[in-house]
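# step 3/5: fold
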Amino acid sequence: MNRNLILTLVLFVTLGVLLSKSKYEVVSLRKQLKTINREIVQTTDDLKVYNAEWSYLNEPKRLQELAKKYLPKMTITDVRQIETYKNFVNNEYEDQETAKHKAFESFLDSVM
């Protein structure tokens, strides 16, 4: 009988400790949840403000006035000014090869 009483007491103490530990973990997790929810609300409010600012900054009239003020010589891009990626890479490669040949030729001339 004495042995059963001791086992029962140990069981109740163990359950009490585990229950207390679980309670404090739940309290801690609730605090973290409240903090995260506050951060979400703050971020949502910040995004609303940023969207309003972005809308103001991208108003066509405002952008047109800024362009006239700071880019007076800017003109519309002509189709002939646009280069394809393939041509750009080929031209740059050819320019590098030409520069290498010229450098090598000048080196040979200086040596001989």
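# step 4/5: annotate
Helices lie at 2-57, 60-70, 85-111.
# step 5/5: archive (pending)
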